[in-house]
């Protein structure tokens, strides 16, 4: 009789998952802040520089402002929907895979979920239309997403490099 256990698909999946999660480096003491591998929670927000705190508030206000345009403008639906879908997916994926709210993880979510709206803004250019509340919102949103991506793309790459190393 052999004392070796059978290798079932469930056993293999659990083994591979444990290897993946142990290599992601998430089992550590968390540092809070706004850098790519710091946890961006309430403590991280308040330990961030004032300009970052103000930027997050400004950005959130303009994204939420999209709700006023979703009924009549598909671009607003892409932008507002991308923000909502990003929040929901980041929470679900974070829970399933045990990913802390690293700034780099948040940045990766931004890049994935905000890019379709930015592409719509840049290809359809509603911000060059006759000035209106919608064209002004589109102008500001184009700036908000582009400015955020200056940091988000870098932080997302750092997060991915750290996570798969």
Kindly state the number of beta strands: 0
Mean pLDDT: 87
Principal-axis shape: elongated
Give me the secondary-structure category. Answer: mainly alpha
Instruction: Using the CA coordinates, give the radius of gyration.
Output: 20 Å
Low-confidence stretches: 12-27
SSE ordering:
HHHHHH
Question: For the report, how would you describe the main beta sheet?
Answer: none
Helix content: 55-70%
Q: Alpha-carbon distance between the termini? A: 41 Å
Structure summary:
Helices cover 69% and strands 0% of the residues. The N and C termini lie far apart (41 Å). It is an all-alpha fold.
Defining key terms:
mainly alpha, 6 helices, single chain, about 160 residues
Structure description:
By secondary structure, the chain is mostly helical. It is built from six helices and no strands. The protein starts with 8 loop residues before the first helix and ends with a helix.
What topology emerges from the helices and strands here?
Elements: H1 9-23, H2 42-46, H3 50-65, H4 74-97, H5 103-124, H6 133-164
Helix pairs in contact: 3-6, 4-5, 5-6
């Amino acid at each position: 009789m052999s004392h070796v256990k059978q290798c079932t698909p469930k056993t293999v999946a659990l083994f591979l998952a444990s290897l993946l999660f142990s290599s992601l480096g998430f089992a550590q003491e968390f540092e809070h802040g706004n850098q790519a591998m710091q946890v961006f929670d309430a403590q991280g927000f308040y330990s961030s520089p004032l300009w970052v705190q103000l930027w997050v508030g400004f950005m959130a206000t303009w994204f939420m402002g999209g709700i006023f345009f979703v009924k009549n403008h598909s671009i607003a639906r892409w932008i507002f929907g991308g923000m909502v879908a990003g929040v929901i997916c980041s929470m679900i994926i974070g829970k399933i895979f045990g990913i802390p709210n690293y700034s780099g993880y948040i940045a990766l979510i931004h890049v994935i979920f905000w890019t379709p709206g930015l592409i719509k803004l840049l290809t359809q250019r509603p911000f060059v239309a006759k000035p209106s509340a919608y064209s002004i919102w589109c102008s500001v949103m184009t700036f908000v997403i582009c400015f955020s991506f200056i940091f988000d793309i870098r932080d997302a790459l750092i997060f991915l490099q750290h996570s798969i190393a």
